[in-house]
Amino acid sequence: MTNQYSITLLPGDGIGPEIMDVTVKVLETVGKQCDIKFNFQTALIGGAAIDAKGVPLPPETVETCLKSDSVLLAAIGGYKWDNLPRELRPETGLLGIRAALGLFANLRPATILPQLIDASSLKKEVVEGVDIMVVRELTGGIYFGQPKGIFTSETGEQRGVNTMAYTVSEIDRIARVAFETAQKRQKRLCSVDKANVLDVSQLWRDRLIKMSEEYPDVELTHMYVDNAAMQLVRNPKQFDTIVTGNLFGDILSDAAAMLTGSIGMLPSASLGANRPGLFEPVHGSAPDIAGQDKANPLAQVLSAAMMLRYGLNEPEAATKIEEAVLKVLDLGYRTGDIMSEGAKAVGCQEMGKVLLEVLEGN
Ligand code: NAD
Ligand code: IPM
Ligand code: MN
């Protein structure tokens, strides 16, 4: 029997449409092989939505996403929209869709592939075997806390304000995802905070300790975020699963990306409760290389694999995609960001083409 899924595509801006193009073809090919039918609909978000509709997240985009089984997003943002007021910026559209779908848990795996060991800026012996899962809280913390804004005092001086806040229920639900994720891995969970300075972090730490009583098989440790940034570069192999808040997770996942060679390789899954999940690369719209056929589409392709695995429960199709990615790397194909000596340099479209060839067994 054919499984059918309705997928909303949000190509967004910059390299977004280029990497989405490749990914849709990959999904269609795997779909045929695994008896899966994808019904794609494309919706506007970010700068593309601002240009067409005047807002970064049109209500019809939210409606379409809510009605679908999963959402696949590429990236948003670009120089053109950088000077718009906050509520009209592409980034506000991305935060808006995460909030509208209740996507509080963002899973960002950073795994070093043996094929790309030379693409990392770190020494081989430091990164070899790295396999980290960053569980980033995605709909709370300083990104969403109130009050926020730029206010003018009685003396006429401006003051910019954001508030880092977490409620117990927000901490508990991300902690649960993290403990359960760690249970399926090496059962080591490192909670990253700034409890030596921030009250919000103290509450975070207290709740993690309390919650750990329910997960006696998981070893819980704590680390301050500044040290975590250093340890990720010094000795990344000490980490299995990391759980942290929205802002720290944003920063640490980019750092973790570089262990693997390129942010162009890193997928992510954003999950909530009882709503469609959203799957997106960790990287942005890369405006510096947009429209030049230079983008690495693999983070997007691997995000589609995460969609199949975590969103649609189609592990076989997910594995097919992941294996095809490894195979094209084995064959020596590299986009600029992961290029190394002796490899075959390809652009975004060409990388897509060889992926399809590998999938089709040519
Ligand atoms: P970025 O991730 O877009 O780019 C950082 C660097 O990595 C650039 O040099 C870029 O060329 C490179 N890079 C990123 N993805 C790549 C890929 N697939 N292949 C090859 N190289 C790649 O981050 P930035 O420059 O800080 O931000 C650019 C815009 O993207 C901003 O508007 C930002 O707000 C937005 N952004 C969006 C998302 C998202 O949509 N999820 C994430 C991060 C940043
Ligand atoms: C990411 C991005 C976003 C974030 C921005 C573009 C809103 O950096 O997905 O990592 O900070 O979450
Ligand atoms: Mn980021």
UniProtKB/TrEMBL annotation:
Q: What does this protein do?
A: Catalyzes the oxidation of 3-carboxy-2-hydroxy-4-methylpentanoate (3-isopropylmalate) to 3-carboxy-4-methyl-2-oxopentanoate. The product decarboxylates to 4-methyl-2 oxopentanoate.
Annotated GO molecular function terms are:
3-isopropylmalate dehydrogenase activity; magnesium ion binding; NAD binding
Name the residues that bind NAD(+): 78-91, 284-296
Family the entry assigns: Belongs to the isocitrate and isopropylmalate dehydrogenases family. LeuB type 1 subfamily.
Q: What is this protein called?
A: 3-isopropylmalate dehydrogenase
Q: How does it assemble?
A: Homodimer.
Query: What GO CC terms are in its UniProt record?
Result: cytosol
Instruction: Write down how the cofactor binds this protein.
Output: Binds 1 Mg(2+) or Mn(2+) ion per subunit.
The protein's matches in SUPFAM superfamilies, at most eight in alphabetical order, are given as: Isocitrate/Isopropylmalate dehydrogenase-like (SSF53659)
| A GO BP annotation | L-leucine biosynthetic process
- Residues that coordinate or bind substrate: 98, 108, 136, 226
Q: Which domain of life is it from?
A: Bacteria
Q: Which UniProt keywords apply?
A: Amino-acid biosynthesis, Branched-chain amino acid biosynthesis, Cytoplasm, Leucine biosynthesis, Magnesium, Manganese, Metal-binding, NAD, Oxidoreductase
| One Pfam family cited in the UniProt record for this chain | Iso_dh
The protein's matches in PROSITE patterns, at most eight in alphabetical order, are given as: IDH_IMDH
Residue(s) at site: Important for catalysis? 143, 194
Query: Which cofactors?
Result: Mg(2+); Mn(2+)
Q: So what does this thing catalyse?
A: (2R,3S)-3-isopropylmalate + NAD(+) = 4-methyl-2-oxopentanoate + CO2 + NADH
Cited InterPro entries: IsoCit/isopropylmalate_DH_CS, IsoPropMal-DH-like_dom, Isopropylmalate_DH
- Subcellular locations according to the entry: Cytoplasm
Species of origin reads Cyanobacterium stanieri (strain ATCC 29140 / PCC 7202)
Biological or metabolic pathway of the protein? Amino-acid biosynthesis; L-leucine biosynthesis; L-leucine from 3-methyl-2-oxobutanoate: step 3/4
Q: What is its EC number?
A: 1.1.1.85
Q: Where is the Isopropylmalate dehydrogenase-like domain?
A: 6-355
Binding residues for Mg(2+), per the UniProt record?
226, 250, 254
